[in-house]
């Protein structure tokens, strides 16, 4: 296994190109199962999670080819409907093949997705959505076995829980509904930009979806969808991670091939704190000009502050003067990075789902362990600003979700490299 070494205390300066959104292209790749035609997906990042999704698609009988950031998906005549434990258990987003398989093939056997260190991640809402469309569902030997011999039929479904809406349950239900007979209404739909991106992809394929980007989707089923070429949106979480990196390292970074459209809440919070952020059409400049003020943040469904930037923001707060507070409302247990940040000299206390962060003068390099994707990014950010050398082990999570992060950071003046453990 590899570990990352960071020699800290270097301001980041220069330009960085943001990749396509991981959480858009995973459901979009799953949605290609809805057609018999070839699809071409552009702006796809080269990531572990994307490779996993391509392996799943191949196991389901479609050919895939990746050239640069473009993936071509071509269905073969031997389609399969079983998504195995070996593939699905490694990545939660794999459960997204359930909706398209039942809709197109009238049956599916999909392993339950794996557990996750960011807290419990049930799939009851995915099942509720697919069941509402008339599929018969059973759980057999760890697999969700779904069938709809006569095809799915439109329905009215409320996809809600105590936490708000679910991103992938909305995606799964929407993908199933586009080929169902009649009209489906999804209430309490998630309206994260990645759900909107998927809906736009499905529309381009010929799906009839109204209410995109709202909490009420109205979908009129069609008989067939066609193959299309589509480019995924920029990754808002990677963008946010680099914005935070600029603030944390007292740097000056221009982010290219991205947009501020999906990050208004994050940009607003950071501007209020004193960070200079200038947004242009496809780029933004972030420059540290003065010490940042403490912040008070709560993660919420979009357009609220994203949970996927909570850990990175905590790293920034840990060196801001004063007391900052960050409350996690989506995954109340997503705080494993805190003990690692404290090991680097941060002063963070957890009270339930709230982290109380007393800014310290500086962090110091240490040996730390990454627990999940965004926690890995938070530890890298902390390592970039810490005095001395930070060693981060278990970094395989990172390769699942950040494209060439060391290369991008080194180009900005960081000193970060891999070693074998
Ligand atoms: N939930 C349920 N039942 C369900 C589904 C979700 O109770 O059937 C709960 C979850 O436990 C959580 C909340 O709903 O408390 C929200 O979870 P959601 O379903 O929205 O999460 P997800 O769709 O599984 C996606 C992203 C996550 C991101 C969340 C929230 C992908 C592949 N994953 O997950 O991204 O944190 O939405 O925005 O799109 C990441 O990229 O690091 C990551 C974890």
Structure description:
With 421 residues, the protein is an alpha/beta fold. The protein folds into two domains: 2-18 and 234-420, Enolpyruvate transferase domain (UDP-n-acetylglucosamine1-carboxyvinyl-transferase, Chain, Alpha-beta prism); 22-231, Enolpyruvate transferase domain (UDP-n-acetylglucosamine1-carboxyvinyl-transferase, Chain), CATH 3.65.10. Helices cover 31% and strands 26% of the residues. It has helices at residues 22-31, 48-59, 85-88, 98-105, 124-132, 167-177, 193-205, 236-248, 264-273, 310-317, 337-343, 373-385, 396-401, 405-411; strands spanning 2-7, 13-17, 39-42, 62-67, 70-75, 82-83, 107-111, 136-140, 143-147, 156-158, 183-187, 208-210, 216-220, 229-231, 252-256, 276-279, 283-287, 296-298, 323-327, 347-351, 354-358, 367-369, 389-393, 415-420. Helix 1 packs parallel to helix 7 (193-205), helix 8 packs parallel to helix 10 and helix 10 (310-317) runs parallel beside helix 12. The chain is elongated. It starts with a strand and ends with a strand. Bound molecules: uridine-diphosphate-2(N-acetylglucosaminyl) butyric acid. Uridine-diphosphate-2(N-acetylglucosaminyl) butyric acid is lined by residues 23, 26, 92-93, 120-126, 161, 163, 166-169, 190, 192, 194, 307-308, 330-331, 373-374, 401.
Give the helices and strands, then pairings:
Blueprint: E1 2-7, E2 13-17, H1 22-31, E3 39-42, H2 48-59, E4 62-67, E5 70-75, E6 82-83, H3 85-88, H4 98-105, E7 107-111, H5 124-132, E8 136-140, E9 143-147, E10 156-158, H6 167-177, E11 183-187, H7 193-205, E12 208-210, E13 216-220, E14 229-231, H8 236-248, E15 252-256, H9 264-273, E16 276-279, E17 283-287, E18 296-298, H10 310-317, E19 323-327, H11 337-343, E20 347-351, E21 354-358, E22 367-369, H12 373-385, E23 389-393, H13 396-401, H14 405-411, E24 415-420
Parallel strand pairs: 2-15, 3-14, 6-7, 10-11, 18-19, 22-23
Antiparallel strand pairs: 1-23, 1-24, 3-5, 4-5, 7-9, 8-9, 11-13, 12-13, 15-17, 16-17, 19-21, 20-21
Helix pairs in contact: 1-2, 1-7, 4-6, 5-6, 6-7, 8-10, 8-12, 10-12
The structure holds uridine-diphosphate-2(N-acetylglucosaminyl) butyric acid.
